[in-house]
Design goal:
The chain is about 40% helix and about 0% strand. α2 crosses α4.
Length: about 110
């Protein structure tokens, strides 16, 4: 019985092989420093990234329901939104709070 080609067969040969990116060499231990704390995070963790909160604010506010006429219009709107957020520290604090991370000044 003949087998019909599926979506995986349409990919180039290199894309059909399983990815080996996650099987890299083991990390070398870092030198111990009293001022350095290393936290190993998962490779993709948007809930630990405060920038995701900033993008969420932009998408819900300045970028919502807008048809951009040119790339420059998009850039101008993003910059305006970021400038608005930049001068309102409570918004940035809220994005950091969502991650449950803290900033400890040195």
């Amino acid at each position: 019985m003949a087998r019909l080609p599926g979506p995986a067969d349409r990919r180039p040969p290199a894309a059909r092989r399983p990815s080996r990116a996650h099987l890299g060499q083991p990390q070398r231990p870092h030198e111990t420093r009293d001022w350095l704390t290393i936290y190993y995070l998962p490779p993709y963790a948007p809930d630990l990234n405060p920038v995701e909160g900033i993008w969420s604010l932009l998408r819900r506010g300045w970028l919502s329901n807008v048809a951009f006429s040119t790339p420059e219009h998009l850039v101008q709107t993003v910059r305006r939104g970021l400038r608005h957020i930049q001068y309102r520290s409570h918004l940035i604090d809220g994005c950091l709070t969502e991650t449950a991370l803290t900033i400890r000044p040195a």
